[in-house]
Specification:
The chain contains 13 helices and 13 strands. By secondary structure, the protein is an alpha/beta fold. It folds into two domains: 196 residues, Rossmann fold; 163 residues, Glycogen Phosphorylase B (Rossmann fold). A seven-stranded parallel beta sheet has the order 3-2-1-4-5-6-7. Strands 10-9-8-11-12-13 form a six-stranded parallel beta sheet, with helices on both faces. The chain is globular.
Length: 376
């Protein structure tokens, strides 16, 4: 099969809708699929994209460069306003029309990872749209965009349910579910000394539960409980507000903020952490970072919300806090920090579950089967 991934943000942005397609491209290529990528030429490439290009010379990458005032899109903070993604999709889509018009190749499938990107895939190609999360609100324009994709793949049942709740007409469109999974051979427990009590990795956005995390830590400090530190890895539009909140709660010496880490540095942090915090309460599927941390042996505290329970089984391989409930989160943080036996039980079961169900060697085969069925 010959597949094109149409995704302008792959070259510079680090979110689930960017890192996952790159990993899928690499694994599908190894399965014998002929993969090409259509993306943008940004002011600065991400280290992940640069590594991908270096490690996958067999994958053809086409780049389109926005020109003139269109390049001002890169000055807008990603993740702050959804219209920013739509504008970029339109600018890039307009550029892509010339690319598609000159093509002599017939792709079996063109894959997109943002609804507004699909609008610019010519009708002669079969378009498969991956749904990575749920919109925060219903938009009239989305009903127009939703007509274009021929097939839909959701990263979790909760994401599928969320889209069908917003747009009931999708119930007739047969949204398939295929979990992303992670590379358990890469994200493995290296038996390092776990000298970090708490770790958060993700975009700095309210629905990720970042304010609940630092408020719960403040409760622990108020109770004079012993912990070493919380490391928070990520960037995003809430960074300055988060720093201000940390100062307000006098947690400057208890929280370490990091950004721009390499894959090796992130792997090291996963392996040095006792407890991984990911209390997202909206929009999410099954967090890739949650699976990565668990595979590296960190014990997971997440929220009983979104797609988290599709992996996290309370008291079996993780513990579930009540969504947006600071006291619930603080109680679980205290409990797991004190109970070494429970922590060991949960983390060992999580590693087994990932090997059996969430490893990309399995999930990519399921995705390949879906793609083959769409192309018939």
């Amino acid at each position: 099969m010959k597949i094109l991934i149409h995704q302008p943000r792959l070259s510079y942005y680090l979110g689930g809708g960017e890192t996952v397609p790159l990993k899928q491209a690499e694994l599908l290529s190894k399965l014998g699929f002929e993969i090409e990528i259509l993306t943008s030429t940004p002011p600065k490439y991400s280290s992940v994209f640069e590594d991908f290009k270096k490690n996958n010379p067999q994958i053809t990458i086409h780049e389109l460069e926005l020109s003139g005032e269109q390049r001002n899109i890169y000055d807008e903070e990603p993740g702050k306003d959804w219209s920013r993604w739509d504008k970029e999709a339109i600018f890039f889509g307009q550029k892509s029309m010339d690319f598609y018009s000159k093509l002599e190749i017939n792709y079996d499938l063109v894959i997109t990872h943002l609804l507004s990107d699909s609008l610019f895939v010519p009708e002669r190609f079969r378009n498969v749209l991956h749904l990575h999360g749920v919109p925060s609100e219903k938009r009239a324009i989305d009903k127009v965009f939703l007509v274009r994709p021929n097939n839909f793949v959701s990263v979790s049942k909760s994401v599928k349910d969320g889209w069908e709740s917003l747009y009931p007409e999708l119930k007739r469109r047969n949204i398939d579910i295929c979990y992303n999974g992670i590379d358990a051979n890469k994200f493995r427990d290296e038996n390092l000394k776990r000298d970090i009590d708490f770790l958060y990795v993700g975009r700095l956005l309210p629905h990720k539960g970042i304010y609940e995390i630092i408020s719960a830590l403040h409760i622990m400090k108020t109770k004079e409980l012993n912990f070493n530190k919380l490391v928070m890895v990520g960037s995003g539009p809430e960074k300055e507000n988060l720093i201000e909140k940390i100062r307000e709660l006098s947690l400057e010496n208890d929280i370490e903020l990091k950004d721009g880490l390499s894959n090796e540095e992130l792997l090291n942090l996963y392996n040095r952490s006792k407890i991984f915090l990911c209390p997202s309460y909206a929009k999410e599927g099954v967090l890739t970072t949650m699976l990565e941390a668990a595979s590296c042996g960190a014990c997971v505290i997440t929220a009983d919300a979104c797609g988290m329970p599709e992996f996290a089984n309370d008291e079996r391989n993780a513990v579930l806090a009540k969504p947006q409930n600071i006291n619930s989160l603080a109680e679980l943080m205290e409990r797991l920090l004190k109970d070494n036996i429970l922590r060991e039980k949960l983390r060992n079961q999580a590693k087994l579950d990932i090997q059996e169900r969430w490893n990309t060697t399995r999930t990519i085969e399921e995705l390949a089967k879906l793609y083959k069925s769409y192309a018939r």
